[in-house]
Amino acid sequence: xxxxxxxxxxxxxxxxxxxxxxxxxxxxxxxxxxxxxxxxxxxxxxxxxxxxxxxxxxxxxxxxxxxxxxxxxxxxxxxxxxxxxxxxxxxxxxxxxxxxxxxxxxxxxxxxxxxxxxxxxxxxxxxxxxxxxxxxxxxxxxxxxxxxxxxxxxxxxxxxxxxxxxxxxxxxxxxxxxxxxxxxxxxxxxxxxxxxxxxxxxxxxxxxxxxxxxxxxxxxxxxxxxxxxxxxxxxxxxxxxxxxxxxxxxxxxxxxxxxxxxxxxxxxxxxxxxxxxxxxxxxxxxxxxxxxxxxxxxxxxxxxxxxxxxxxxxxxxxxxxxxxxxxxxxxxxxxxxxxxxxxxxxxxxxxxxxxxxxxxxxxxxxxxxxxxxxxxxxxxxxxxxxxxxxxxxxxxxxxxxxxxxxxxxxxxxxxxxxxxxxxxxxxxxxxxxxxxxxxxxxxxxxxx
Length: 448
Known about the structure:
The protein is of the alpha/beta class. The chain is 35% helix and 17% strand. It has a three-stranded mixed sheet, with helices on both faces. The protein has a three-stranded mixed sheet with strand order 3-4-5.
């Protein structure tokens, strides 16, 4: 039976803004307080989805969240009508209003961890929504994320959904941004690769000194248990604490993998040789041939990687077996990174082509191509069981671009977040979107 890796890209929400909320994310903090363009951001993301669909890849859409999150503000003591809640938060606690307006759910690599049916004990595709408890503005996402994923992958015969892990520091979980999977074929058993930044209970593991390590070993172990993964099909590795302190807040900022290939920076991990040997041995037992591409620090520094988001790219397998790397425009703008990519593709190695996309609106807020997509490996039967409304087609692309043009502003500043009209605009847009994507009632304003 044929199997696919389907990329479900996050649709940028109507409140896309540069709040500078993510400490440890250099791009997010450096562009704080600048005016954003939500319409352009959404259209840039849709253009990437359309392009990959036209290249023959399976492509889906993951809906944004309701923002401002008035319910979250009410839990923090703001009362009155929705408009009064927003007005009082703007007056008394503007940082909380900014957090409640974050459109960070666009980066759906953080939405969940996904294990395909070939790896799990019960033969179903498993989803665990990430608690994202390291950052308040992201920690409020997982209830809606769970409902949206449940509406997309509803058939319990094929799909299993788990609630987010306990929202405490010991189980900080960042989803697929710190997880990838290696396999010979998407429909065959593979090796799931969990990368953590620290251990909550074991002091033998070093921790970064400047920026927080968001993913814990304990969270990764818990997700593997929930998904019914075997020890022979799992490898755990620790991020290098020194690169976290240089702005590598997730593993997908310093490494990306697909199929049998890991593309990574020389400084990405601790005990790299041991990790690579374990990946090679375990994938070999699954019939695969693990291969790695190490980018030397002498050619691309960690600073270059963070500024260009070279590794926050999509590594895609083509039908002929060659690999394609999808990178942001910023890679072409960095001389050392672009020179490296030119030498990489001209060498006749594993990665044969690089395609560049303009994702400036997302990049300025700290997320590149890899942040914008959640990968789900599905066989033909499972793909047929997915809600068809979320699978990208040419007509859906046209409908969504028209939807964006109708509902999104072309400029948004921090002061605009205090406008109660923005909440009405967002709810109107999302109510229409759930009908377009055939999701049903998934947002709090539709349920309460």
